[in-house]
Amino acid sequence: MEGATLSDANLTNSYFSSSFIGVNGFGSPAEPKYSMMQVQEGSTLNTLSFADPVNSPTSSLFSDFGALSISQRRKVSMQTLCHSIYFRTPNPAASEFIPKGAPRMATMAQSAVQAFPSPLFTHPGLSSSTAAALAPGMSLSAGSSPLHSPKITPHTSPAPRRRSHTPNPANYMVPTTASDQAAHIIQKETVGGTTYFYTDNTPAPMAGMVFPTYHIYPPTAPHVAYMQPKANAPSFFMADELRQELINRHLITMAQIDHSENPDVPSEVDSYHSLFPLEPLPPPNRMQKTSNFSYITSCYKAVNSKDDLPYCLRRIHGFRLVNTKCMMLVDMWKKIQHSNTVTLREVFTTKAFGDHSLVFSYDFHAGAETMFSRHFNDPAADSYFTKRKWGQHEPPPPRQHAGLLPESLIWAYIVQLSSALRTIHTAGLACRVMDPSKILITGKTRLRVNCVGVFDVLTFDNSQTNHLALMPQYQQADLVSLGKVVLALACNSLAGIQRENLQKAMELVSINYSSDLKNLILYLLTEQSRLRSVNDIMPMIGARFYTQLDASQMRNDVIEEDLAKEVQNGRLFRLLAKLGTINERPEFQKDPTWSETGDRYLLKLFRDHLFHQVTEAGTPWIDLSHIVSCLNKLDAGVPEKISLVSRDEKSVLVVTYSDLKRCFDSTFQELQAAASGSL
């Protein structure tokens, strides 16, 4: 399945990285019988057996940190050491290297030992000769380029640079005292004849920790379980709503156009290909221009051939770029990375469309829709502001949750839009596209300001010496535009921001919404004698900012919980795929009975044990938890025994999952060797 035979060390690392992700949370009260795992040498995908969780130098949870070796092809500097050391089994012929742990400290010279107070090891878990060679929770950067590694000298301890950003569950189970916290463990590293000493305060694991020997799905976290999820929500897979949203995004991202029916769309534009229109293309004879940019525009999804990532291309029809000095502003926009703006990646000119066109490349957010299409696409919403003929009665004003948007949603939009403006203004730029047709909404409430930087290029004046001189004026215009957007949302109609309807719109806001929202709109729309800042509206937002932060973090908790349900699915799929390549193979190496003999026969019976169970009445017994549990035990190779019954019920074989794993690995390696031509 992996396409090539892997070494034992690589398989060990990949196995533990895929099988025991999120080990914190294991060891539930329902599984007290499982002990710590130990890696057995000599197996292809290391089998597991019971062992002491701490004192074993080959404990599986810490086996990735158990031993280190240094390549002898060339001398390595201390700078390279922290980024190029990789994890393998101990190599007696390797250059001398002193990792963390007590056993290696015995090699320290006596003169060096006497320079430090005795004893060196203050924690009892580190004084044993069988202590782990590298403390859990510590890692060395593997695979990084030495050119990007930090400079490490005896004056800067390497220990903090080695700490993994992923917390280790063992670190949370170590009792700490004042003496432990005050103590320092002296570590030594010898590279190329130079010896480095540094201190390390990483706690050692407490003896007696027990983890399951194979992956077990933990229950839902209580802070998510008590969020009152929807009735009949799936508990074993991610929520259907989130799944459908992701599927729709994937479909839009992979959508392609039929060029035979759309000959006007070029196959390639600069370094982009696979163009797909994201909005209806303007007719060839169209003469009217858009109200926003005063130019005819069109939008495409395209894939960049340099990185194979999808981007959104905004084309300005018939625009000839005279001077490239405006690229200074484009470079400023490219540096802005914010969660509520669509990042500008590049700007280029092209003749691929048959004319001189200017193209802006932005990040592509699949499934996004504009605020205009989400909230202002209903003509009936403007009826309250429509002039009545003589004799017609004016309809009653709309109410919140009955024609108007809830105030909490409007404040959520205000927080995001003001945050985007704050970042843009701090960078010395102006948004200039604060318009419902240029604000994208993804999901339920996530906003992103689109088409930033377009006006800066289209209206660039080459005669000005200071091209940022007008930015303060544009920033003031951004605040007025923000006020109009908020007023339109409060009225749920774009007609409310027209000059003749402003008084009626503000009365509607006063009746249905809080005074803070009314004051914010008045402050943004009223001309001030002094320059205003987006920070001025923060007191009006007040504690509502914390409400939005809390909602965002709760949403993050729910998504993480959904991710946790699916995190092991890839590993289980690979197991099933490998098992499927072995079972019922018609012929292998000119042997038609290959899949029915030897180790393959055991795997065939195990397949029946997985999928073909029946009840006492002879009806199919279908239990997904049984399938998942058995596959996890096979992947870990636990010593648990199972009974495999032949289809004629004349043979019963009692085997362990460890035996099945050995048969499984050797058989699949045999197939891999034949596929690669090694046999």
Characterization of the model:
- The chain is of the alpha+beta class and 679 residues long.
- Among the domains are: 260-380 and 403-535, Transferase(Phosphotransferase) domain 1 (Transferase(Phosphotransferase), domain 1, Orthogonal Bundle); 563-676, Helix Hairpins.
- The chain contains 21 helices and 19 strands.
- Helix 18 (569-582) packs across helix 21 (657-675) and helix 20 (624-636) packs across helix 21 (657-675).
- The chain starts with 7 loop residues before the first helix and ends with a helix.
- The relative contact order is 0.09.
- Mean pLDDT is 76; it is low at 1-164.
- One of its GO terms (biological process) is nuclear-transcribed mRNA poly(A) tail shortening.
- Interacts with PAN2. Interacts (via N-terminus) with PABPC1 at lower efficiency than isoform 3.
- Residues 543-581 form a coiled coil.
Q: Return the CATH topology of the domain at 260-380 and 403-535.
A: Transferase(Phosphotransferase), domain 1
What class, by secondary structure content? alpha+beta
Number of E-type strands:
19
For the biggest sheet, the summary is:
6 strands, antiparallel
Provide the helix percentage.
25-40%
Q: Which residues sit in consecutive blocks of at least 5 with pLDDT less than 50?
A: 1-164
Instruction: Tell me the name of the CATH class of the domain at 260-380 and 403-535.
Output: Mainly Alpha
Mean pLDDT: 76
Pfam families: Pan3_CK (PF18101)
GO biological process, one term: positive regulation of cytoplasmic mRNA processing body assembly
Protein name: PAN2-PAN3 deadenylation complex subunit PAN3
Subunit structure: Interacts with PAN2. Interacts (via N-terminus) with PABPC1 at lower efficiency than isoform 3.
